[in-house]
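Field: sequence (string)
Field: structure_tokens (string)

Example rows 1 and 2, in order.
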Amino acid sequence: MLSNHKVLGSQVGTTYFRMRAIIALCAMVVAAVQAEAGSQLWRVEAPSYHRVVRALEDDGDVDVWAGTADHCKVLVEGSASTRVVRALAEADIGHSVEVEDMMALVEQERTHMQERRRKRAAQPMDWTSYHDMDDIEGFIGWLNSTGGDLVQVASPTRSVEGREVLVLRINDPSSQGVKKKKIWIEGGIHAREWISPAVSTFLMYQLVTNPEWRDLLKVTEWYIVPVANPDGYQFSFSSQSARLWRKNRRDNGVSERCKGVDLNRNWDFKWGVGASANPCSETYKGVNAFSEPETFGLQQMMRTIPDIDLFITFHSFGQTVLYPWGWTRNAPSNAMQLKRLAKAFTDTVKQTSLGKVDYDIGGSGPLYGLASGATDDWAYGELGIPFSYTIELPDQGTHGFLLPENRVSSTVIESAAGVHCMVSLLANSGSCARRRTRNPSSIRFRG
């Protein structure tokens, strides 16, 4: 099993980072969706796909955070609470308030982050705290300059606001004549899910610096998108009211409140099922599939890489490993194999966390309700990637999207251990391998 790797930023102390730290001391590092004063988290005694909940979400009156077959949790803005109460009462749906003041929690997070940033002024990249786009781009620059031939950085597209959407290819070119397994990792497609880029950047760090991961590079080739939604992610750090922003920053011509497209409803596979045509909805699918430069550019690059074996997109929250389909409740043809590889992740996380973190496994549609236009369905259905997953990271709802910084270190370590085991099993090499790969064949990279 993968041993815990000490989470330190001691190897990342470049002049650039020291300068960034000084600048960061003068900046307010805060928080993405439109949570305004009076926003509350409610438990609604109906599933997220109930017609009334769907209608409220479509009108932008609630933001569905999580759900099961019999209830869901929704964020309700103060200005919408009367309408929501009336709609639920008319449908005889019960509800209760779980968090009275969401902004109080955001303020607690903001205060804690500011204090931590002061303490780590000389070392702004670590995995004990959250980082904005400037920190992440600086870290990518450091990896690119110090990783030698292992790291290549590409920018297949720019965001709505002109930011580069970066993809790192991490590969050991000295491994000649080996047929390598190809892994595509996507992070940060939903802006407010800060733990997702933390995991994706930690994976990059492990692949370049950890000998056990370097050994895995002899039989694998990685493509990692640390932040697929850079505009939304950076916006979520811009103010307290922005902390829970989900979408990108597309101007839909309605209002500031109704900006953005849900990039995880914009991929062109069964586009439109379980998504919204209302720009004010958190699940707004866009005017057409691949309408957004972020998704269009990424899919173009993914098409140029033949025979990707494993796709993972990291989200939060829920502690669930989801596989296709999202657009239907029917199981895919290789559901048993998908479950088996997912179990390698969940068992490893449980062991690494000493039993504290336990994940569920299942199809997206049956567990979360129908929703199409997601990256994992497109990767599986359009590209034919045989193992395609959405991993909903911790927690199970206690903190939701506001996972405390004191959980970052353990979450990235556990998640990396789980991914390492999945890839080791898939590539038949390393800690979870069943056997050694024989008769390797050569492979070429096509950019």
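Row 2 begins here:
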Amino acid sequence: MPFYNSEEERRHGREQLLQRQKHLIELCYKVAQKYLFEGKHEESVPAALHSLRFRTNVYGLNSVQLVPAYLLLSEASIGLGHVVQAEEYLSQAQWTVLKSTDCNNEIQSLMHRNLGLLYTAKEEYEEARYHLANDIYFASCVYGSEDIRTSGGYFLMGNVFIHQNKMDIADSLYTKVTEIWHTYLDQHVQNQLSARKQPADILAKELENDTGLDEAQEAEAVHILETILEIRENTGKEKPASILFILKTVAILHYLMMNISKAHELAVKAYLLSKELPNKEDVTEALRDLLGLIASKDPVTLKAAKFFAGQGQ
């Protein structure tokens, strides 16, 4: 803090410092989250530690606001195989929550999700399921049961059932996750398709790609959906409709993230699969529309889009 000549200047300076610290808390938290979803556990640790340090400076050592940083450090430790270290961070988080009178459902959800990850890593699957069920409950209280922020709990629960060789239950949970993300992402595509019918001066603005997600949420979406796609392709050959659904969802995600070549590759793959399945005319038409949007962002794919549009005539 610099030297100020008056109490008013000092008060204003303290307020500005506090705002900068809160901004850094959020920035470090999102960076650490992004690295975790990308599987870069070691790289996430410095950002999580900075988030913890700034939280301590702003809120104090006993504040429940420290819990999200402890949970990030726990998750990074699990990813690095440091289970004992993860348990220490989780114990600190639990102790902080027990001492707090203002712990909200969002933090409860995060804590149970991390406990679910810990017990999954320890292969204690019944305990993992218990905590992930609590995660889903608390997340549903905050966001609703059909929200993308709740879907992570369903996904992790599905992973536990995979470990227990309960494939039918895991399949239903992965379907739930895909439906939630498809509903969210497809709405952005439908908005763009509607915007294409608008006057030219409105069109340019309306067709700007935007997932509505921050970088950490986009990394989470890629991790969850591509993991489900890999599992579907490896284990679900007898359920091509499920493969088609997740292919389309991942294609939309990459399109909205402007990963155009990846989006085109997945959309073409989904389109060709849809032509092989009975009663999939609506999906085929939707994929032609998606290929058209992809072509509008990349002239290289325009020829392919015209080819598939011609096939639908």
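free_text_note (row 2): Residues 18 and 310 are 59 Å apart (CA to CA).
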